[in-house]
Every structure is written in C-alpha cells, then in structure tokens.
TrEMBL record:
<protein>
    <submittedName>
        <fullName>Uncharacterized protein</fullName>
    </submittedName>
</protein>
<feature type="compositionally biased region" description="Low complexity">
    <location>
        <begin position="55"/>
        <end position="82"/>
    </location>
</feature>
<feature type="compositionally biased region" description="Low complexity">
    <location>
        <begin position="90"/>
        <end position="99"/>
    </location>
</feature>
<feature type="compositionally biased region" description="Low complexity">
    <location>
        <begin position="8"/>
        <end position="45"/>
    </location>
</feature>
<feature type="region of interest" description="Disordered">
    <location>
        <begin position="1"/>
        <end position="108"/>
    </location>
</feature>
Amino acid sequence: MRSISSKQQQQQQQQQHNRQQQQQHQQQQQQPEKPQQHQRQQQQEEQQHHHHHQQQQQHQQQQQQHHHQQQQQQQQQQQQQQHHYHHHQQQQQQQQQQQTSLTFIVCR
C-alpha cells in the first residue's frame, strides 16, 4: 500500500497604511518522484512602526525523508502590519487560500 497526499495552503494577509509599496514573490515547485516526505514552513512577519523602511525576514525550512510515504505540506504565512501616519490611508487586504488534496492508493 502506498499513499500520496499533498496539501498546499497559502495565506496572505496584507495591511497597508500610508503610501507604501510591498512586493512579495512566491515560487513553489513540487516534484514527487521518489518516496520522500518534504515539510517546508516559511514564516515571514513584517512589522513597521514609525519608520518607513524596515524589513524583517525569517526563513525556516524543515525536511524529513522516510521510505514509503510521500507527504508534502507547505504552509506559508505572511503577516504585515503597518501603523501610524493617519494622513493618506490606503488599506488593501488580500487573502488567497488554495487547498489541493491528492490521494493515490496503489494496492499490489
């Protein structure tokens, strides 16, 4: 018995006050060839207080490999909060959620 399950969850929350531009690029590639277990967790938290140009990036990657299981879980959480400066307020909120589940069961 072999089971293959892949789940993708993307959560993007952006809050923008003032006239500020933020660009984020995400690339995901999945190639299920050999029985492996990949777990990738990326957490990016950006907080801007009082100043215009501050960037904080945190990257965490975890990989685990087993023999006869394929499980791929990718979770990306991005939180951006900008406060202060009450003149010229622009609020943009974008939420994207994609969930794809694939289950293959092969009996020999």
